[in-house]
Amino acid sequence: MSSKKSQGFSLLELMIVIAIGFTMAAISLMALMPVLKQDHLDQAYDTTLSVLRTYRNLAVTQGNRYIITFWTTDPPCQVANQSCIQVQVWGCNGCASTGTNMAATTVFTYELPSDIQFATQSAFPTSTPDSFGNATSAIWTLHACNVTEGGDPCLVFSPDGSAQDDTGGDSGGSYVPGNYNNALIYMTNPSSSAYSSRAINVWGASGRVRGWRLYNEGGTNYWVQQ
What we know:
Elements: H1 11-62, E1 66-71, E2 84-89, E3 92-93, E4 100-101, E5 105-111, E6 139-141, E7 154-157, E8 163-164, E9 169-171, E10 174-176, E11 183-187, E12 198-203, E13 208-217, E14 220-225
Antiparallel strand pairs: 1-2, 1-7, 2-5, 3-4, 6-11, 7-8, 9-10, 11-12, 12-13, 13-14
């Protein structure tokens, strides 16, 4: 007959098994943290790239204007110090002739993962993507948006596909376009390594959007187009 001792686990054995389980879980979580951080950065990059390209295309196909504003504080971001992108449609009454500006209407606000920000890091090289902007401004635009956004960095995609500032509108009964507006946007996890950071730039004259990733080779940091 089996003894009572062999019919189950002792409290000590059970505690040892639980401790081993917690240790393995902690090790697995630590190993997954860099992967999760990279996944969040990829999400932020994909979202920003998609927003820019989607609303440029909609501006062309709909014959409308869309304002893309980049925010690093709330509002309109839902969480304090979170980075987000606000999209507004900016209609006008007869843009081809009278060009009277209507009030901008918010279409959607896209939020980046909470640990990812529009920000720079000291490791960013002074040689910037396409030589746009600089290595210290998280969101750089050639012209400020003062009419609708009060100086906040924004791009206005117009029906011809170009990216402009928000100075376009009615002037003497005819529509006058705004200034072509180049832009450079950095995305990074400020508390993590800079070498997975991303950048996106926009060429104002055509509205062309390019994505970039930071690499290090031989001790030199540089941006590579994706």
